[in-house]
Each structure stands twice: as structure tokens, then as C-alpha cells.
């Protein structure tokens, strides 16, 4: 399994991810703003917005905050901040390629924060285009309670998925083209699967094997630090790593 998925999963199991990220409200609210801005400000006709609202509700964000975020995206609520979507690229320890998606109202602040995070954790922020050529964007549905893999395969094919991967016992990630994500999500749900997450994700075309414990620890600390920044929405990296090394690094940092 690709290292980043496996690592995210280990963190999820240990309930580390959202408990220590007080910025989760900011990130989810911003995702709603951008989704409302990019399409119609009505969840019924905007799949990206519907997904962002579902995630916000699951994280316990109050309805008032959700409505305000939709209004900001629609331009009917003005707080004088203009959010830009920017992609940053860099290298982590061991030459691992890292892609960062950010939403910011101050690109100088964001770039400075990222530069500090990289330099403190053995990496460096690179130029635009330095690593993005290694990644392609896909739609991903995460499915839980998968008892019958044959059934998952059939439903995935029916929903025009490209592939799926079991990331742990009874949990799978199903991949598709970006434009097909809504259809895939709907098909999986209609065939009785428990879809717990729907997202667009950058998937690396190649992987760098990380084998040294110190390097592993620095890399995961770097990704954790990047994910903890208010302006950062998503972080993707092309590492692969033995599960025991990964678990050890998560516990120790």
C-alpha cells in the first residue's frame, strides 16, 4: 500500500489526527467557502459543497458556521478576506516529494510558514513544478465494513472506478477520474457500501522507500507540521515505509 495512505490510516486509528489539530474547523470552513465559490451555493446542485458540508457536520461544526461559510463563498457575506487556492511543492527528508494544497488570504505568510516547517524538519520548499509532475489528481471514496471484496469489485466497476485497494481489514479506497467521483460515490452507496469519506487526492506515480528511523521520524513530523498549519488543506507525499517504522514514528513524535 502507498505509504501516505497507510500512514494516514495509522494516525486515524490512534485518533491522533483531529484531536490535536485545533485548526480542523478553519480548514473545513474554508473548504466550504471554496466549494460554494467554485459552483452554485446550493448543496443540492454542488457535489463538492455537499461533501464539504458533510465533513464539517461530522467534525461537529455548528450549522451557523456552515451557513456563514456558504454565504462567504457565494459572496453574500463579506468579511474583506479573499481566499486564494495555491499549490506548493517541496522535498522532505530522503528526497520525498511533497505536494501541499493551501487556501490563504495572505500568500506571503503561508509561504513563510511553509518554509519554516520544511527547514526545521530536514526538507526544503521548492519551485512550482518541481514535484507536481510526479502526481495525478484522482477521486477517492473510502469505504468501511467491506465483507465481500467480490461485491466491492462489482460495485466499483459499475461506478466506473479505475481501481481499489484494501488499506486495512474491511476498509478500502476506491479510485476514479475526478469528473466521475459523484457517480462512483452514489453507486457505492446505492449498492449498500458504507462510504465514510469522499475526496480529491493527488496520487504519486512513483514512490521513495524510506528505511532509516531518523529519516522516517523527521518526514512524518514534517508532514504533521504542514498539516497543522491553518492555511494548509491537504498534504500528499510519495513515500513508502514499513508499517512498524511508521507506527514507531507516529508514537514517538
TrEMBL record:
Family annotation (InterPro entries): Integrase-like_N, TACO1_YebC-like_2nd/3rd_dom, TACO1_YebC_N, Transcrip_reg_TACO1-like, Transcrip_reg_TACO1-like_dom3, YebC-like
Keywords (A to Z) from UniProt: Cytoplasm, DNA-binding, Transcription, Transcription regulation
Protein name: Probable transcriptional regulatory protein H6G06_05160
Compartment(s) of residence: Cytoplasm
GO molecular function: DNA binding
The TACO1/YebC-like second and third domain, residue ranges: 83-239
Keyword Ubl conjugation: no
Pfam families: TACO1_YebC_N (PF20772), Transcrip_reg (PF01709)
Superkingdom in the source lineage: Bacteria
GO annotation, cellular component aspect: cytosol
Listed PANTHER family: TRANSCRIPTIONAL REGULATORY PROTEIN YEBC-RELATED, TRANSLATIONAL ACTIVATOR OF CYTOCHROME C OXIDASE 1
Domain TACO1/YebC-like N-terminal stretches: 5-75
Record-stated family: Belongs to the TACO1 family.
GO terms, biological process: regulation of DNA-templated transcription
Amino acid at each position: 500500500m502507498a505509504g501516505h495512505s497507510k500512514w494516514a490510516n495509522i494516525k486515524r486509528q490512534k485518533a491522533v489526527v483531529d484531536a490535536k489539530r485545533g485548526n480542523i474547523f478553519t480548514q473545513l470552513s474554508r473548504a466550504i467557502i471554496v466549494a460554494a465559490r467554485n459552483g452554485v451555493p446550493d448543496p443540492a446542485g454542488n457535489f463538492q459543497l455537499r461533501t464539504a458540508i458533510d465533513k464539517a457536520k461530522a467534525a461537529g461544526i455548528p450549522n451557523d458556521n456552515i451557513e456563514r461559510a456558504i454565504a462567504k463563498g457565494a459572496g453574500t457575506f463579506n468579511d474583506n478576506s479573499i481566499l486564494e487556492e495555491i499549490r506548493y511543492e517541496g522535498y522532505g527528508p530522503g528526497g520525498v516529494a511533497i505536494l501541499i494544497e493551501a487556501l490563504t488570504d495572505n500568500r506571503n505568510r503561508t509561504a513563510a510558514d511553509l518554509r519554516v516547517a520544511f527547514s526545521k524538519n530536514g526538507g526544503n520548499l521548492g519551485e512550482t513544478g518541481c514535484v507536481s509532475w510526479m502526481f495525478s489528481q484522482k477521486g477517492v471514496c473510502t469505504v468501511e465494513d467491506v465483507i465481500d471484496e467480490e461485491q466491492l469489485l462489482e460495485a466499483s466497476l459499475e461506478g466506473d472506478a479505475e481501481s481499489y485497494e484494501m488499506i486495512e481489514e474491511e476498509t478500502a479506497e476506491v479510485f476514479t477520474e475526478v469528473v466521475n467521483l459523484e457517480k462512483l460515490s452514489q453507486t457505492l452507496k446505492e449498492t449498500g457500501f458504507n462510504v465514510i469519506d469522499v475526496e480529491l487526492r493527488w496520487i504519486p506515480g512513483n514512490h521513495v522507500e524510506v528505511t532509516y528511523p531518523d529519516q522516517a521520524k523527521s518526514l512524518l513530523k514534517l508532514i504533521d507540521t504542514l498539516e497543522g498549519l491553518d492555511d494548509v488543506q491537504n498534504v500528499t507525499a510519495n513515500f513508502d515505509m514499513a508499517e512498524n517504522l511508521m507506527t514507531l514514528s507516529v508514537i514517538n513524535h
